[in-house]
Design brief:
about 300 residues, TSUP/Inactive_protease-like
Length: about 300
């Protein structure tokens, strides 16, 4: 006799899962994800025609290995330290001649994948503070769009913008070293969290990174719980990266697709290695080393850019 199929039980189980109570945050996340997929799908099917994809891949040469290397290094550092992907990748791309707008756009496009998975897992494990997330997300997205638009609008002045962005990445390098050395910070109440998110999103788009170091560090230093702060900031980062990427895409197009592909490939290769090494590497020493490297490379870009202002 064929096995008895209990379709009503299966249907009831699915209905129970679907009809369970959902928090407002979960509803917002699912609606936002659906809208994001619709927008990305429209852009892909509108602009990524077969001819354009073939044209992009025809321009790919051995230089993509530089971007694979950049993505690998950035993901290894981020996997070991839990931060600094954006600033590391941006510093690397600037050092090999990529313009600030293309560097930031490429980094944020590749971060959409990593931050999306990371944010979703934080949400599933209950690490997201609903109130904090809702306070961060809208100002963060607005700041990201403003920063991306300003930077991409100044693409003709890339030679002048690059040393300015390098000053910012130098500042982030100093923040990384400070986080490694400082043992305890005095707690203080932070009231204008929305303005912090706006500022963090803006600088993140301008400099290609910094959302985590600026927003997370400030909130934790003000006395907020690290677990819920990191979870909420990580989830918000997906929307910040997506908004920044779409703005860059709308203004400067997809001429940097090979850079994005290189970063993603390098990151995919590095992710399992970094995860395995995360608990074996001396985190404090690694943070200091990464901060020093970022500062040195940033100083080099600043020195090379000084003649343009003279």
């Amino acid at each position: 006799m064929p096995p008895k199929r209990n379709f009503p039980s299966i249907f009831n189980a699915i209905q129970t899962i679907w009809m369970r109570d959902r928090s407002i945050t979960e509803v917002i996340i699912h609606i936002s994800n659906a809208l994001a997929l619709m927008i990305v799908g429209h852009l892909l099917f509108t602009y990524l025609t077969a001819e354009k994809v073939i044209a992009v891949f025809n321009t790919v040469d051995s230089s993509i290995l530089y971007y694979v290397l950049g993505g690998f290094i950035a993901q290894m550092i981020d996997g070991a330290l839990g931060m600094a992907y954006g600033v590391t990748a941006t510093t690397f791309l600037l050092s090999v001649g990529i313009t600030p707008a293309a560097a930031s756009a490429s980094v944020h496009a590749s971060e959409v994948f990593t931050s999306g998975v990371s944010g979703y897992m934080h949400l599933k494990f209950g690490n997201v503070n609903s109130k904090l997330f809702k306070t961060l997300v809208i100002p963060g997205v607005i700041g990201a769009i403003l920063g991306a638009y300003v930077l991409s609008s100044l693409e003709d002045y890339a030679g002048y913008i690059k040393p300015i962005v390098s000053v910012y990445t130098l500042f982030l390098g100093a923040i990384i070293i400070r986080k490694a050395l400082i043992k305890r910070q005095e707690k203080r109440q932070l009231k204008r969290v929305g303005w912090l998110a706006l500022f963090g999103g803006y600088l993140d788009s301008i400099g290609g990174g910094g959302w985590g170091p600026i927003v997370s560090s400030t909130l934790i230093a003000s006395g907020r719980h690290p677990k819920y702060t990191i979870g909420s900031v990580n989830l918000t980062e997906f929307f910040v990266s997506l908004a920044s990427s779409l703005t860059f895409f709308a203004v400067i197009g997809l001429g940097y697709l090979h850079v994005i592909i290189g970063l993603i490939l390098g990151g995919v290769i590095a992710a399992p290695i970094a995860a395995r090494l995360a608990n074996k590497l001396p985190v404090k020493s690694m943070m200091i080393l990464v901060g020093i490297v970022i500062i040195i490379v940033s100083l080099r870009q600043i020195i090379l850019g000084v003649p343009k202002f003279l």
